[in-house]
Amino acid sequence: MRKRNEQGFTLIEMMVTVAIIAIMAGVAIPSVLAWMPAANLKGAANDLKVAMIRARSLAVNEGIEYRVFFDTTGQTYSIDKGNLSSGSTAWTTTLGPNEMPSGIDYQSTSAEMEVSGSDRFVRFETDGSVLTNVDALNVVLVNNNSATRTAVQRRTGHVTATKG
User: Fold this and answer.
1) How far, in Å, CA of 128 to CA of 148, rounded?
2) Measuring CA to CA, how many Å separate 38 from each of 58, 68, 122, 138, 146?
3) Does residue 123 contact residue 80 with C-beta atoms inside 8 Å?
């Protein structure tokens, strides 16, 4: 009698494997779905932080004012270039508008920010500082679960994104 060379899996082994994978997915999916809003919010705050750092860098490198303009109605922001090294009267959008991700809104912007109509902006001087009379300007982004704020420090123009 010949011995058969058996290879592969039986139907029962395959069904048990599929059942285990289904149970693991059922446990993991709610955790991932609960984590996503916080990850999107953190990403939006970091994107805003990068835009502010870029505007500051452009102001220093080009010797002309730049600003990050917040359209609170349209939930967008853009980087605008001024026409002067100080006291710009005309602004040209150089990057944006960038939309806030779905489900993330501006909860507030600092009252001390400069205002253009109902919108606010942060203006970076050619030395990298922010034109303001307070120590920090805050932009608070919010979703249904938590809030993250982006602060701009006046004296240095240093930008931080913190969980709030």
Assistant:
1) 24
2) 30, 24, 25, 19, 7
3) no
Domains of the chain (ranges; CATH) run: 11-163 (3.55.40.10)
Residue-wise pLDDT tens digits, 103-145:
887 776 666 677 776 678 888 888 888 877 677 777 888 887 7
Those residues whose C-beta lies under 8 Å from the C-beta of residue 69, and which sit 6 or more positions away, are 77, 78, 79, 80, 91, 93, 96, 116, 119, 121
**108 DSSP β-pair partners:** 140
Averaged pLDDT, 10-28? 89
CB 40 within 8 A of CB 143: yes
Please list, residue by residue across 125-164, b when 16 or more beta carbons sit within 10 angstroms of its beta carbon and e when fewer do.
bbeebbbbeeebbbbbbbbeeeebbbbbebeebbbebeee
Q: What is the pLDDT of residues 24-72, one digit of tens each?
A: 888 888 877 777 777 888 888 888 888 989 999 999 999 999 988 888 7
pLDDT value, residue 79: 94
